[in-house]
Amino acid sequence: MKNRSVLVSGASIAGPTLAYWLSRYGFDVTVVERAPALRPGGQAVDFKGAVHRTVLERMGVYDEICRRSTGATDMVLVDAHGNERARISGDFTGGDVEILRGDLAAILYEAGAGHCAYRFGDSISTLRETEGGIEVEFENGPAGNFDLVFGADGIHSRVRRLAFGPDEHFVRHRGYYYAIAGEPPHREQSDGPRRRESYAHNDAGRLAVGSGAKAQQMYLFAAPEMHFTDEAEKRRVLTEKFTGMGWQVPEMLAELPVLDDFYLDALARVRMPSYVAGRVALVGDSAYGNTLAGFGTGLAVVGAYVLAGELAASEGEHIVAFARYDRIMRRYAKVGLGSSPGPFLAPKTTYGLWLRDRFLGSRWFGLMEKFAGDAKDDLDLSGYPAWEAR
């Protein structure tokens, strides 16, 4: 098989999944991750439909994901006095199985770590394509030569910048920012997943989500594109944006300075004319990311499976495999590249809030749920099981 030595950048969701399948198909796989270790915690992510489940079952991780699942969480939208005004069902937001991002990353890593080389605390600094491969230099470790390089390093992908061009060519700000602070809710192993509720309060252009003292907080707010210097400035801006809001928001803001695991970023969408360039291919959020749209995790896992499968089918002939991967995923990824969740979760006007609440209780919302589920299953995986046995 040609193109045996490959480098994967990113060890979150798409990266470990791609590494697992490539190593299973006989490639020599190295994964580089800039974080010093796997990142725990994070928000809940989900899978929904037969296509997602098929890939996870073939990888042998579906049962463990179910065992460590959080259960569905209904979002209860309340007014300034805590009275329920609308509800978003966890069956819609959480899919068939929901799990914390950190738990999922650990499961995917453990599935393939014994057959791949992982380099934590490092990242790619330069890529130089040659006639027979790619010369790669790293920030900390020794340089190396690889046949292929894969960017699975998120919506602000360094591999994409090096191989395709700067972020501004491909990443589109959606007019909103979101923030997460604090540890995720405790998962109760003994009782299995339970249905939970989180509580959220809106006013025009702002949404605050919390579920009690020292619990994980989430914020969403409308704002033009901003540039931050450090985390302290991000916390200051977030506090300013939500000062004066009712419900429990003042108490949440008072607690914010002592909460760890803080993250703030723009809602953004990646639009690529192609996911491949020479000997480089993008997968997951680096290729078709759309923040908080609800499809990213499934797309990452399915895209990694398709990319590895096409390479195996072509005996490592990357030109053929990359063309097929690009064509398949450009069609399938459309399910996750539609509208932004910002205007739906945090409408910018009081009238918009009223319309959103009415819509949540209507039959049209049920039709939207059905369409989303059908779209996630619009992919034929029947050709891939034969390659799994190699």
From TrEMBL:
Gene3D superfamilies reported in the protein's UniProt record: D-Amino Acid Oxidase, subunit A, domain 2, FAD/NAD(P)-binding domain
Any one GO MF annotation of this record: FAD binding
Segments traversing the membrane: none
Domain (FAD-binding) ranges: 5-314
UniProt-recorded name of the protein: FAD-dependent oxidoreductase
Organism: Nocardia speluncae
